[in-house]
């Protein structure tokens, strides 16, 4: 256990929030690579890359777009991951440096909400794939759908409960269970994907017509679509930019986490995108149309063995991305809110239950609307990332006093636990992010909301913190009392 020069406040500290001790920093670059494999290799990533062709891009333009987006994304990830690896601290604790002990609960709460909502969506999608597997293996399984319980067929209810329990089993043994699961799940998905690539090359007798299809986007039109798609690709991972310290805190060294992420994120994302484009080109030959939905693609095969193996791959892929991207973060976020009562395992199980209470089966058919809402919320987290980066690199010069994170009267008290300058910067960043919605004449700016929020929020924070008096501690606090 970490020792402190000052008594730590039990409302700010427990073992899951404490700095990771050296003997527990066991994650090598291989672990980070496989974690990113597990997160990148999913249905949404597959469809996104394949759909670039549908927008009119050539294969080379699509690959170029994916490369640029992932280059920007890995830069943001690495910038926000250094503090976690250096001090062994998770995102909810690091957020206290900029926002204060109380103020940090604002970004932590919204980050947890978004993650649990995404968990609910992904888990239900995985449940459908699991139900397909069970339908191929169990006679009469599909007939159970005639009996409805809480708004869905009995077969789907069983599949949902089973899939939710799979998540609980993985989380029940803590972050180490997550690490071991991702170690084999990520590579397994890409191996199965390579099998589909082999099928595509076989039926297409080469790389298929998509690789010779000319671009329908030229000049300014291409660059306009390019900007929108790059922003969209980055925005889909904007929440991970925030909580990447939840993983890098376990890194053996900065080199391990940087190399692992550099290989695992852009490397596997580009490979996976290339694979999806090859497979899509094969569907043009085999079925006479581009099939970008992997679930539909598996449905075109009439072999029960292929359907079972394919849907099992989707189940593993969904489990992999859901555990790493949508359970680890809210688990730490909930622990941060209730450190006296929760640990990682309990918080993870609570997140799973809350995700079930969102009842995704009732609104999944309107997923397009839900995704739009979630993307808007995720884009709104851009200013938080900008503020945290500005605090670490520009204001603190990459130096934190660890004791201050866990003491109510420490250096991050500000005004009774709130940093007004961070809140003002957050407001400015959010205004920049959503100015395109507020002013119709600036509607195109909304397509770049993550970038605008990141830069405006970070720049505003750096300027406010370096100008005027230090707000760390004032006798005339506008809120009084210790953190409850």
From TrEMBL:
Top-level taxon in the UniProt lineage: Bacteria
Compartments where found: Membrane
UniProt entry keywords in alphabetical sequence: Membrane, Transmembrane, Transmembrane helix
Keyword Transmembrane in record: yes
Keyword Transmembrane helix attached: yes
CDD domains in UniProt: SLC-NCS1sbd_YbbW-like
Transmembrane segments: 62-85, 106-125, 145-171, 183-202, 222-242, 263-287, 307-332, 344-363, 369-390, 422-442, 448-467
Topology relative to the membrane: Multi-pass membrane protein
InterPro entries: NCS1 (IPR012681), Pur-cyt_permease (IPR001248), Uracil/uridine/allantoin_perm (IPR045225)
Family affiliation: Belongs to the purine-cytosine permease (2.A.39) family.
Protein name: NCS1 family nucleobase:cation symporter-1
Organism of derivation: Alicyclobacillus mali (ex Roth et al. 2021)
């Amino acid at each position: 256990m970490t020792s402190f020069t000052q008594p730590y406040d039990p409302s700010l500290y427990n073992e899951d929030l404490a700095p990771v001790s050296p003997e527990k920093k066991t994650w090598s670059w291989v672990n980070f690579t496989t974690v990113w494999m597990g997160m990148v290799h999913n249905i949404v990533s597959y469809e996104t890359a394949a759909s670039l062709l549908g927008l009119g891009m050539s294969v080379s333009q699509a690959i170029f777009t994916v490369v640029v987006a992932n280059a920007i994304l890995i830069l943001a990830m690495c910038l926000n991951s250094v503090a976690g690896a250096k001090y062994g601290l998770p995102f909810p604790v690091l957020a206290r440096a900029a926002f204060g002990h109380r103020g940090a609960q604002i970004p932590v709460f919204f980050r947890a909400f978004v993650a649990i909502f995404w968990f609910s969506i992904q888990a239900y999608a995985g449940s459908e794939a699991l139900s397909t597997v069970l339908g191929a293996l169990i006679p009469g399984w599909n007939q159970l759908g005639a009996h409805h319980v809480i708004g869905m067929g009995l077969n789907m209810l069983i599949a949902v409960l089973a899939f939710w329990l799979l998540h609980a089993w993985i989380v029940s043994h803590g972050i180490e269970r997550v690490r071991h699961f991702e170690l084999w799940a990520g590579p397994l998905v890409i191996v199965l994907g390579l099998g589909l690539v082999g099928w595509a090359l076989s039926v297409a007798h080469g790389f298929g017509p998509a690789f010779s299809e000319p671009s329908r986007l030229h000049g300014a039109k291409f660059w306009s679509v390019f900007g929108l798609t790059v922003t969209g690709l980055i925005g889909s991972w904007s929440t991970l930019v925030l909580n990447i310290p939840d993983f890098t805190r376990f890194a053996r060294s900065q080199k391990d986490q940087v190399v692992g992420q550099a290989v695992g994120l852009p490397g596997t994302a580009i490979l996976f995108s290339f694979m999806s484009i090859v497979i899509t080109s094969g569907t043009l030959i085999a079925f006479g149309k581009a099939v970008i939905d992997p679930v539909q693609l598996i449905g075109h095969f009439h072999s029960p063995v292929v359907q079972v193996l394919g849907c099992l791959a989707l189940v593993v892929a969904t489990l992999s991305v859901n555990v790493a991207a949508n359970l680890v973060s809210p688990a730490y976020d909930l622990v941060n809110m209730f450190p006296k009562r929760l640990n990682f395992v309990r918080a993870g199980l609570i997140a799973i239950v809350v995700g079930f209470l969102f009842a995704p089966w009732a609104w999944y058919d309107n997923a397009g609307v839900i995704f739009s809402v979630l993307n808007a919320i995720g884009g709104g987290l851009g200013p938080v990332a900008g503020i945290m980066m500005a605090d670490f690199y520009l204001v603190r010069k990459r130096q934190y006093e660890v004791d201050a994170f866990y003491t109510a009267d420490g250096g991050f008290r500000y005004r009774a636990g709130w940093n007004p300058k961070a809140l003002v910067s957050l407001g400015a960043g959010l205004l920049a992010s959503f100015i395109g919605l507020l002013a119709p004449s600036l509607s195109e700016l909304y397509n770049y909301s993550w970038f605008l929020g990141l830069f405006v929020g970070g720049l505003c924070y750096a300027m406010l913190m370096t100008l005027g008096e230090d707000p760390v501690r004032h006798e005339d606090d506008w809120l009084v009392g210790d953190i409850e």
